[in-house]
Amino acid sequence: xxxVWFVTGSSRGLGRAFVEAALARGDRVAATARNAASLDxxxxxxxxxxxxxxxxxxxxxxxxxxxxxxxxxxxxxxxGRLDVVVNNAGHAQIGAVEELTExxxxxxxxxxxxxxxxxxxxxxxxxxxxxxxxxxxLSSAAGLLAMPLGGAYHASKWALEGLNEALxxxxxxxxxxxxxxxxxxxxxxxxxxxxxxxxxxxxxxNPAYDDLRKRLAGAMGNQPAGDxxxxxxxxxxxxDADNPPLRVLFGQGFQPMLEKVYADRLxxxxxxEDLARRAQG
Length: 281
Hints:
Rossmann fold, 9 helices, 47% helix
């Protein structure tokens, strides 16, 4: 049976790859972007299916709560149901914590965290009524570890990790599934640039961190870039799974680093066990 998708951030990158893969196999998609004109080619290429219009292009900024709710409602009215929700929209604010302005941090959380919350809150009444549905949250390898100059981005992605883990427990009894996707680097912006912290908005640099910037740029250049089309095929597989995992890494470039990070955390808690015991009183 054809699935109905609601995908944010559909104009380019992974979001565009997800939309194209779903349409190519005969699913129907409400594709959102801040500029709906960027979706015109999707309508031209995929046209209509036996189920009617295959693509519903929607102009929507995830930071506009009212627009998000209206877009989700329109999707349900247009297609008659809603099966898969992909929270993909967002950006990366780059800068040392000392360099960030208050507005930059607020903008980062508005787009990456609050925007995702608005989509979930808008979709859940429809999914609960159906007794089914699958919510995909695009997090990042940066939601599992922390690197210099990514404090704002990490804050948003770490928050999404906890929020969606709680969400999964809250909605399981309604027949709704939640999967957190944690991509490494993908070649999504005109070249193989695998740095997940190198394609966003930049804070005004403080010269005190120039050496750190140079070292980080060299280290991140060694990470392999993934193919968005391959990621999209795996997402389709997960959307069809009866028992999908809560979390999935997309790409293996960060696997060794993550294994070390988690081993270091466990060792840290073990090494400080006496302090923990004494702190309890």
